[in-house]
Structures are given as structure tokens and as C-alpha cells.
Amino acid sequence: MKSSDVDRLLRSAGQTQQPDAEIPFGTRVVAGWRSGPGARNDLADLSRFLRGAGAIACAVVVIAGAAAWRQYREETRFASPATNEYAIADSAIQTEFSQ
What we know:
Elements: H1 3-14, H2 25-34, H3 42-98
Helix pairs in contact: 1-2
């Protein structure tokens, strides 16, 4: 095919309001791209969806990280005194039995 034939085909595909299901996806993408701003574009829809999904995923990671940090801090706070009390009691018991 000549370049002019391809241009004519893409121009006519870009003039349709709603792309037909029979038009291949690649042709619809290129036709939407060449039809100019304001036209419905499948790549823009996909990009918008991926940005939204990425924002939600980042929010989930931040919330999960904050929850994990809080749990870690609580475990550290509760583990330290109990460990020290057991160590003191164990040391006292060992001292008593060694005499």
C-alpha cells in the first residue's frame, strides 16, 4: 500500500464517532491518535485506569506499612520489660540455687 492510501484509511477511521468492533485495535489506536485532541482514545483510557490503580496500590502499601510499624513498636514495647523481668527472676533463682 502507498503512504497516501494508509493516510486516507487512517483519516476515515478517525472520523467515526464510535469505532466498530471489526476495526483492529491497532488501527483504532492510530486513528484516535491522528484524529487530534478531544477524540476518544483507548490509550488515554488505559493510562487513566493505570494511574488510578497505581494510586490505590500506593495507598494500600502506605497503610499496610503504617500498620506493620505500629505492630512492631507495640511488640518491642511489651517485649522489653517482660524480658528484663524474666532475666532478673532467672538471675535471682540461679543465685539462690548456686549457694
